[in-house]
Write a structure and sequence with these properties.
- The structure is a homodimer of 241-residue chains.
- The first copy, chain A, is an alpha+beta fold.
- Helices cover 29% and strands 23% of the residues of chain A.
- Chain A is built from seven helices and eleven strands.
- In chain A, the strands form two sheets. In chain A, strands 2, 3, 4, 5, 6, 7 and 8 form a seven-stranded mixed beta sheet that branches. In chain A, strands 9-11-10 form a three-stranded antiparallel beta sheet.
- The radius of gyration of chain A is 20 Å and the shape is elongated.
- Chain A starts with 6 loop residues before the first strand and ends in a 7-residue tail after the last helix.
- Strand 1 of chain A pairs antiparallel with strand 1 of chain B, so a sheet runs across the interface.
- The structure holds a DNA duplex (30 and 30 nucleotides).
Chain lengths: 241, 241
DNA sequence: AGAAAAATGCGTAAATATTACACAAATTTA
DNA sequence: TAAATTTGTGTAATATTTACGCATTTTTCT
């Protein structure tokens, strides 16, 4: 344990943290990973004990190559979820002078998208939980605000990025994809126009799963055609809706 | 002057700065405001002396309400340009562990748009200068990279925001507006289609400047119709190009 | 001075994209 | 067992985007 008052500077320095908004999708609802604050953390972080919060923590000045590394490291430590640094997208800085009661702390918020079905098992259930969007409890610090901003960023990004790639399992149905878009964009689409548009981009391939279609009520399975998607993206497209 | 080694913390803290990319437009070219490092600054900031850099400086932990306040304060101190905190848009965080040779410094980059004709006189010519885009010298620290990212952010934002409002003088011509769009988006548009699209949005009003039009080679003057623009923006539009 | 080139405004036809909408079949719900 | 819901498919009407011609005046070139 570090000795108290070990590090001195000529001018005041703020503490810097990275916070993570991790979005998942279970085929029906958008979800967010939250942690319960308090329990087994060291003394210096005992603010808002017992409340729910975004996973995140302090920049390690000597070890974290970038602030995204902080995000990845802290997410792992606090929730068990191991993501690549590249999976984190920066949302923005939250720097209000009073946002942390202990000292001046500015945080760089990030978001990440995960395939819920593949990572849910990794989530340390003692400390962390997945909450449905629209069923989020009040959060510690200014994390409510951070969550709103992160969501609106996701909402913007969905126009240009294949968020489906990251949130959906390998195989998925068109209704699932549409529901995901509707959840994020908070609108409803005409089923047929949605399908036409998606097919027009040619980034979906129908999956032959052996079972001869039993009937029209059993939706077809698709997977993303990564090659076509990448080509499309390089040429600068808009996955416009 | 603060005594050396006055501030102590239990854990290491990074220094935090705000950097500013200030864009202007002179009717022909996009420009950026840069400062010459070195001269009359205190001892602690004598890295990259003599090189050009983005204006910016350290967060005042006790006084700066947010990091955007840092940006506004430092821009004023270093260039004489006095902008409102609201004029700064966050670009992102640059946190590479070695980006500053002195100590760990993470910076939050911002950009701002100004009417060059109205602020050029305020610019302190001893310390700062306006550089044409495409004629930017090598910059200190990782400021080259910051500049590129800021520009690409501006390029994105122009689809949804009226950057013309901020960069152009009160009155301007359609060719000027088009040239501005072309400079930022780095493409060429068909003159007639550009005009049609702009007029279709109904955010331009033709200015009657008394002088009966002398000929088609004298472009008409317009100003922005702020009311219509605001209404359009509230309803969620895309100033699509 | 005169000729050539470039810039401006205006408008329209063709191509492309978006929107609205109906039906048949199978599954789920009541 | 009937009713309601869900899925797939396709087309006509509407709106948007793109490509382009012409008359005129200023600027540039010789």
């Amino acid at each position: 344990m570090a000795k108290k008052g070990q590090y001195t500077y000529e001018y005041q320095h703020p503490a810097v943290t990275a916070d993570c908004v991790v979005f998942g999708y279970d085929g029906k609802e958008l979800k967010v990973l939250l942690i319960k604050r308090g329990a087994e953390k060291e003394a210096s972080t005992t603010a808002y004990v017992g409340e729910w919060a975004l996973p995140g923590g302090f920049l390690d000045v000597e070890k974290d190559k970038t602030i995204a590394h902080t995000a990845a490291r802290e997410l792992k430590e606090e929730t068990g979820l191991k993501l690549s640094v590249k999976d984190f997208k920066e949302v923005g800085t939250f720097s209000d002078i009073k946002r942390d009661p202990r000292e001046r702390v500015i945080t760089i918020a990030h978001y990440a998208l995960v395939k819920l079905s593949e990572v849910q098992a990794d989530t340390d259930a003692d400390k962390a939980d997945w909450f449905s969007w629209g069923d989020i409890p009040h959060l510690a610090f200014d994390h409510d605000k951070i969550l709103r901003v992160a969501f609106s960023r996701l909402k913007q990004d969905i126009h240009f990025e294949p968020v489906g790639f990251d949130l959906l399992p390998e195989m998925f149905t068109l209704p699932q994809l549409q529901n995901l878009y509707e959840s994020i964009l908070e609108v409803k689409f005409d089923r047929r126009n949605f399908a036409n548009k998606m097919k027009h981009f040619k980034i979906l391939s129908e999956v032959e799963d052996g079972t001869p279609r039993k009937g029209t009520r059993t939706p077809l399975k698709y997977r993303f055609d990564k090659d076509n998607y990448d080509r499309l993206k390089r040429n600068g497209f808009q996955l416009e809706f």
